[in-house]
Design a protein that fits this description.
Layout (H helix, E strand, L loop, with lengths): L1 E5 L8 H20 L3 H8 L8 H6 L7 H22 L1 H22 L8 H14 L4 E8 L2 E8 H18 L6 H20 L12 H5 L14 H14 L8 E2 L7 E5 L5 E5 L6 E3 L6 E3 L4
Antiparallel strand pairs: 1-2, 2-3, 4-6, 5-6, 7-8
Helix pairs in contact: 1-4, 1-5, 4-5, 4-6, 5-6, 5-8, 6-8, 7-8
């Protein structure tokens, strides 16, 4: 199964993850160029994970064993890393990524001990964080059957837990050249760190987002429910955002509500929507079908 899209709107541009992906690809081509040079090849090999040396502990995360190894890792890092980087912010993202890589590395050295290269452990840590922040967001994937692609989409927690179960099976079986113990260690580290961040309120969720806490421990509210089509809903929304000092999600108003400088458009379900031009390009939800939609930049 190859994921190609995640349904997560970005609060910030994930610039740090873009730079991280670029740096890993750049280092891989440096590896290729060093193959024919004995001195350069020896220098590169000093960054392979082989025991508890500092170079190997940090450097192996930027090395890969071949094109397929690199491409597989970069697909996951691009999709899940962009979402998590947007949630954490660019400043915090890189140290978190490296810390998760070290957690994965220590798990591998303690439970396995073989030499290793690759960013898989750190990336699985990012996937573990994604599961906490965006468990219900859709992941679109495809797989090949007789060279024909079959496309499907599922909620994130189903696919991610399936991948994790596969890594657990590989770790217990101890077969192949894959560092399954690093995958498991990184995932558990990322999952736990994300839980801690939410618990300590270092990271906040948007009103239209549901973390794993919201699913497992839903909060009971004494405030009467109000339809998203009513203006009172958006009054509460703005009040809550102002209290948390977070920019509010764009309110999508039912046709007929008067506002200055409106954008008029229709959802795919047929609902007519009006919204202030201040929210052009933002992400909101349709008041009729609750589907995530992007407000046109008119």
């Amino acid at each position: 199964m190859i994921p190609y899209r995640v349904d997560v709107p970005f609060n910030h541009r994930p610039v740090m993850n873009w730079l991280l992906v670029t740096s890993v690809i750049f280092v891989f081509f440096v590896q290729l160029s060093a193959i024919s040079d004995p001195v350069a090849s020896k220098t590169i090999s000093s960054f392979i994970l082989d025991g508890w040396g500092i170079r190997g502990l940090f450097g192996h995360m930027w090395l890969h064993g071949g094109f397929l190894h690199l491409i597989g890792n970069m697909i996951f890092l691009w999709l899940f890393g962009n979402a998590v980087c947007s949630k954490l912010g660019n400043v915090l993202y890189l140290p978190v990524y490296v810390a998760l890589g070290l957690i994965a590395t220590m798990s591998h050295l303690i439970l396995d001990g073989r030499t290793a290269v690759g960013a898989s452990g750190a990336i699985n840590g990012i996937v573990g964080m994604y599961l906490v922040f965006f468990p219900e967001n859709t992941i679109s994937c495809f797989f090949l059957v007789f060279f024909r692609p079959i496309f499907f989409s599922l909620s994130g927690y189903w696919l991610i837990l399936l991948w994790f179960a596969f890594d657990l099976f590989g770790a217990f079986r101890g077969s192949g050249n894959v560092a399954y113990t690093a995958h498991v260690g990184g995932f558990v580290g990322g999952f736990g760190l994300a839980i801690l961040m939410l618990k300590m309120k270092w990271i906040g969720m948007e009103r239209d987002e549901r973390s794993i806490f919201d699913i497992l421990l839903p909060k009971k509210s004494n405030i009467p429910k109000v339809s998203r089509e009513e203006l009172e809903f958006w009054r509460r929304e703005f009040k809550e955002k102002e209290k948390r000092k977070v920019k509010p999600v764009a309110p999508l108003l039912k046709s007929g509500k008067a506002m200055d400088k409106l954008i008029h458009f229709n959802c795919s379900c047929g609902q007519s929507i009006q919204v202030s031009r201040d929210y052009a390009g933002k992400i909101g939800r349709c008041p009729k079908c609750s589907k995530r939609i992007q407000i046109p930049k008119q």
